[in-house]
């Protein structure tokens, strides 16, 4: 379950010391999830943790999947898969409706299990505190009553005067939480919802052997309900179908004599329970008669006003401490489990103490609205029939189940954490398909930060190399200027212009796992762009760049907006560094051939292929300003609207700084080179013929120079920026 954070803090990675108040289902789930993340966990339980009896719990798909992810299989601790829902008419005992959830369960990723609470509690405790399993075992302290909670200092004070501090506190101390009051505005008091409930367990055999009740357990695994105007009885199996759990919900005033406020372990009166349900069918009364009064419990169903927040400083409250649930949808335990797993998701190993507050904000964003929405569904599901009618409300249990069950708190919260970390890292790049998150590429090699130690080591072990041939030639300015978008112009008024065919082969590229590729483009020299504010930029214009690999084409088009197209590029070197032949083709059809010969070494030049700039020589117009970088035009067509652009704007890439590990380039020069560009028809170049024809028609007035530059260390185009 562990994940790796992507934080930027310089603090050394270590386990967080986390103190959890309460060892109920929520507290132990949190301890287990955080243990599996590699943290140091201490749990403080006020009771002596005597095993509770007489209660079962729903583990719907949303909760069961999380437990399974952590290695807890409810089916192996006596859990029974819910295979149906049946509602009977209370007064007659006739069937009102039946739902086969075994078919419905195919919609859910994980089964809906009905589990004895004590069995789940024991399993969680053993997994959280046992020596086996991932991470360091959590330490459980019983009979440890918390007196004070310091959220800012992450400190707990106990009734005996001792205290303990950590990096972070979790309040999982139930509906009467002490931790809750340490959150501003969180000093909420639970109140009577108007309903109370009896609960008890019966052996399944006691029902199947009784003619009055045998039909009620004919389909073991079903959730069975009798819902009257203002009271209801719910029955479902647990403990490998050997026990049936019962919850009898009724108006609080009718059992108030049994309730002193001591919690949900108060003894209930069997006679009073029978009186409360006296109008129910004989089969129901036969069930209630079987209850063992010595084990019959009654408790008040408590509700609470919504807290303004679940978090403050270094404290988070979860489960009933944060959002006490009524039992009408069986989601109270499930939401506590979701809380615990979501907390662990935002605190992977390597999270720094200084990052905790930010991570708690993510937890709150993931949990606050969902928990309260399910609370709202639960309150509606528990309303009396008359109250629903008076408010014009209807129950939509399929909507409730779809929302409740169809959620994975781990996946949801880890995605939220990922987005949080991505927002902090300005080096991240996104391309389609964006659904999968950050895209690796030349400006995010192997998905890592470009200046990370890992990338540095890889580049040192396998240096990135480039080999660039360039042929600079004279051509017609009036022909070339037809390529220039609005705002671009030649700096010189001369009708003869200079352009270059530049072919670069890269090898050992870290972002390609040590692989490489070639590119060939037309570069038009002596261009300027006038921005809307009147300022000018001077550089070289790139109308088209061919590359022979998909990845650089996609990254260059998507991230930088470059005018890239695919073509096969073959570079053959002859006689060492003295000559070369380059061909440009598409599926066997060649439409460009370039040769360079007679290359001889020259003095080192600045990084790049055209480092020299023209100087004034005698009378005449002054030379153009130095070319500071490369221009091109970004264009993205609109979907469904031919001829219309979603995006169109000029881009400028300044001449890059020398890359990491760059050595002085080796440069070779010649005056002997040829350029042969051939036009083709659509049959041979179906997607490129229009470009090949334009290139073939470009006037050639002679080669000015040719060069070969070999470099170790490859500069990136990440400095590209929009001009207007």
TrEMBL record:
InterPro entries xref list: Acetoacetate_decarboxylase, ADC_dom_sf, FAD-bd, FAD-dep_Monooxygenase_BioMet, FAD/NAD-bd_sf
Family: Belongs to the paxM FAD-dependent monooxygenase family.
Taxonomy of the source species: Eukaryota, Fungi, Dikarya, Ascomycota, Pezizomycotina
Keyword annotations from UniProtKB, A to Z: FAD, Flavoprotein, Monooxygenase, Oxidoreductase
ATP-binding found in the keyword field: no
Name under which the protein is recorded: FAD-binding domain-containing protein
UniProt GO molecular function: FAD binding; lyase activity; monooxygenase activity
PANTHER family with a match to the protein in the record: HYDROXYLASE, PUTATIVE (AFU_ORTHOLOGUE AFUA_7G00590)-RELATED, MONOOXYGENASE
Residues annotated as domain FAD-binding: 18-350
Segments for region (Disordered): 607-629
